């Protein structure tokens, strides 16, 4: 059957080529071939490659410079359909570089979207977000409605994955409005899927299920197995969260059948991790662990360390090429400047009386240029070394975050299984199990804090601002930490105002600031004492204060409170775990909001931390 399809394709191209000869270098037929190939799925991957090679060959004959971009993108799509992600990213980077050389915004936007989508697929959502933002900016510059719609929808999807559902719903709402206003109803599947995921993240199960079922019914009617797989997976996940295990099993099984029918190992891996979640939620931990191992095996095969390192090398290669192009432009500019200086010199020599002055000036300028050149060469060598070290550091951090997550997840799962029935254990055995679980939690916290404190990209990201009711917000924080305080018989004091206290800021950053301060206060406060939390508003600022009756801080330690990896002499009152990173993270987050943090403390007299944020 495959050989018969190849014969048909060859016949089609023979006819198409004969027709192209009559067009006298008319390149529109190449664009038609390209558009046709974009609609192919994984079952027609070989045809995509054939189209790419055909376009490359014919474009060279016709002198069609944009043909290289079309061919490179199709080759990337071919590799992605075959799940060869490192090769796919290489072709997408080449397509991006070529589109920028030709100054074609349409193909630049496509290449950026391809890279963003593939980075999301290989579990690098932050990198994906960066490329989607670039693609969205290019779409706005082009004022092309469909491209704005597509990239807006993708931004919503990746914001949900990074844990910003409100930002996701903002972009998805705009994309849905664009689709309705411009009669793009055929594209609503992706919008509804992403909106459903955002509501799922916010634990609004009924709203999420509504959007997933809309897609399911539409794709049943259209017999679209690829999209139907996503719908079954999403619906099953909602039913698992609702503890409706019969319905959940039905849709998990359907998604597994569709993944096998589509022949996608990536989809089979996603089904295995959902099976693991289903069995864990229903209490069958042995089956949950079996599917977890199956997912781990498939996931490692699809995106292993070698692939990630290859992708990092290709990304660095692309950055180096961009730098070389910038240097070439700089050299052309310097060349023009030198030509202008030479003309000035000739003019000066022509006016006799100023000849000596002109020669002396030229000598001094050249001497200065030689010194500057030496300095620039030294700076360039240093920058190259720093860039190399930084790339190695980023690669190591990426590998650590990916590879260490699974062991901690496995430890927590086994400890949870053991703790589900502890009636036959001795007190020492129980304490040992609790310590295992606590150590796994502390390990995850330490890795997350180390990655966060070293991650400089946060300084270059736009803040996602929203209106926050500080009274309700702090009430939620206190409620979250009330059980931890009660374990040490510590009384938390916070009185919410009668009227809403509205403040525009980033909810996630505010949460991390308050949680770190309150957690520290509980750790360093003895049993039976008090902690006070309050918020005050002035015309220009909001101030949040956390005051405790804890062990206090020595005067000589206060200047080092917010230093990275610096531990002070004060110790938690009951041996609680402390990484030494919490206050340095708080300081960095406060700086991100253009605020300031102060500490007043005396040994054995408690501590008062005050965060002041501008309106």
Please give a structural write-up.
By secondary structure, this protein is an alpha+beta fold. Among the domains are: 203-285; 307-403; 406-460; 466-614, Histidine kinase-like ATPase, C-terminal domain (Heat Shock Protein 90), CATH 3.30.565.10. Helix content is 71%, strand content 7%. A five-stranded mixed β-sheet has the order 2-4-5-7-6, covered by helices on one side. Strands 1-3 form a two-stranded antiparallel sheet. A hairpin with a 5-residue loop joins strand 6 (596-601) and strand 7 (607-614). Helix 13 (245-262) packs antiparallel against helix 14. It is globular, with a radius of gyration of 30 Å. The N and C termini lie far apart (68 Å). Mean pLDDT is 81; it is low at 1-25 and 456-460.
Attribute tags:
22 helices; disordered N terminus; 615 residues; 5-stranded mixed sheet; 7% strand; single chain; alpha+beta; two-stranded antiparallel ribbon
CATH top level assignment of the domain at 466-614: Alpha Beta
- Quote the beta fraction: 5-15%
Radius of gyration: 30 Å
Q: What's the CATH topology label of the domain at 466-614?
A: Heat Shock Protein 90
Biggest sheet: strands side by side, in what order? 2-4-5-7-6
Q: Helical region count?
A: 22
What would the principal axes of the Cα set say about the shape?
A: globular
Quick overview:
This protein is of the alpha+beta class and 615 residues long.
What is the topology?
Elements: H1 2-21, H2 28-37, H3 45-62, H4 67-81, H5 85-102, H6 105-121, H7 125-142, H8 145-161, H9 165-181, H10 188-201, H11 205-222, H12 225-241, H13 245-262, H14 265-282, H15 285-302, H16 305-349, H17 355-403, H18 405-419, H19 427-454, E1 466-469, H20 470-487, E2 491-493, E3 502-505, H21 507-523, E4 530-537, E5 541-548, H22 582-592, E6 596-601, E7 607-614
Parallel strand pairs: 2-4
Antiparallel strand pairs: 1-3, 4-5, 5-7, 6-7
Helix pairs in contact: 2-3, 2-4, 3-4, 4-5, 4-6, 5-6, 5-16, 6-7, 6-8, 7-8, 8-9, 8-10, 9-10, 10-11, 10-12, 11-12, 12-13, 12-14, 13-14, 14-15, 16-17, 18-19, 20-21, 21-22
């Amino acid at each position: 059957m495959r050989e018969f399809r190849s014969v048909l394709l060859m016949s089609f191209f023979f006819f198409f080529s004969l027709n192209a000869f009559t067009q006298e270098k008319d390149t529109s037929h190449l664009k038609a071939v390209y558009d046709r190939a974009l609609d192919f799925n994984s079952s027609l991957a070989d045809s995509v490659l054939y189209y790419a090679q055909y376009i490359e060959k014919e474009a060279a004959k016709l002198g069609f410079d944009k043909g290289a971009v079309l061919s490179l993108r199709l080759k990337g799509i071919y590799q992605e359909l075959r799940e060869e992600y490192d090769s796919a990213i290489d072709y997408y980077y080449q397509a991006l570089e070529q589109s920028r050389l030709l100054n074609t915004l349409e193909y630049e936007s496509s290449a950026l979207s391809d890279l963003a989508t593939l980075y999301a697929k290989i579990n690098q959502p932050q990198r994906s977000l960066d490329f989607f933002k670039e693609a969205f900016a290019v779409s706005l510059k082009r004022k092309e409605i469909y491209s704005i719609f597509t990239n807006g929808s993708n931004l919503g999807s990746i914001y949900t994955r990074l844990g910003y559902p409100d930002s996701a719903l903002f972009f998805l709402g705009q994309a849905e409005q664009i689709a309705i206003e411009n009669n793009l109803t055929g594209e609503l599947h992706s919008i509804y899927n992403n909106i459903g995921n955002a509501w799922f993240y916010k634990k609004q199960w009924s709203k999420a299920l509504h959007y997933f079922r809309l897609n399911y019914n539409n794709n049943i009617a259209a017999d679209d197995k690829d999209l139907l797989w996503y719908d079954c997976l999403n619906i099953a996940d909602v039913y698992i969260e609702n503890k409706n295990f019969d319905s959940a099993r039905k849709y998990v099984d359907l998604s597994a059948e569709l993944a096998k029918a589509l022949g996608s190992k990536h989809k089979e891996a996603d089904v295995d991790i959902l099976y693991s979640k289903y069995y864990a939620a229903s209490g069958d931990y042995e089956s949950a662990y079996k599917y977890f191992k199956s997912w781990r095996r498939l996931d490692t095969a699809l995106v292993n360390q070698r692939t990630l390192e290859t992708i990092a090398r290709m990304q660095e290669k692309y950055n180096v090429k961009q730098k070389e192009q910038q240097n070439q432009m700089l050299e052309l500019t310097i060349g023009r400047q030198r030509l202008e200086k030479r003309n000035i010199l000739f003019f000066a020599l022509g006016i006799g009386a100023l000849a000596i002055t002109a020669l002396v000036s030229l000598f001094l300028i050249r001497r200065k240029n030689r010194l500057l050149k030496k300095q620039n060469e030294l700076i360039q060598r240093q920058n190259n070394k720093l860039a190399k070290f930084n790339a190695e550091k980023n690669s190591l951090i990426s590998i650590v975050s990916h590879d260490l997550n699974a062991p901690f997840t496995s430890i927590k799962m086994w400890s949870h299984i053991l703790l589900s029935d502890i009636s036959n254990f001795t007190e020492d055995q129980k304490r040992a199990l609790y310590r295992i679980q606590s150590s796994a939690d502390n390990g995850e916290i330490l890795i997350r804090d180390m990655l966060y404190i070293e991650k400089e990209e946060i300084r270059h990201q736009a803040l996602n601002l929203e209106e926050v009711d500080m009274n309700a917000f702090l009430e939620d924080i206190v409620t979250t930490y009330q059980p931890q305080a009660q374990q040490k018989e510590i009384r938390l004091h916070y009185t919410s105002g009668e009227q809403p206290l509205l403040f525009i800021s980033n909810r996630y950053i505010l949460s991390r600031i308050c949680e770190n301060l309150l957690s520290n206060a509980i750790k360093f406060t003895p049993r039976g004492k008090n902690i006070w939390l309050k918020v005050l508003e002035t015309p220009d600022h909001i101030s949040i204060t956390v005051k405790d009756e804890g062990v206090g801080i020595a005067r000589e330690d206060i200047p080092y409170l917010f230093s990275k990896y610096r531990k002070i002499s004060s110790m938690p009152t009951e041996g609680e775990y402390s990484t030494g990173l919490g206050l340095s993270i708080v300081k960095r987050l406060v700086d991100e909001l253009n605020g300031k943090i102060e500490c007043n403390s005396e040994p054995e007299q408690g501590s008062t931390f005050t965060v002041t944020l501008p309106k």
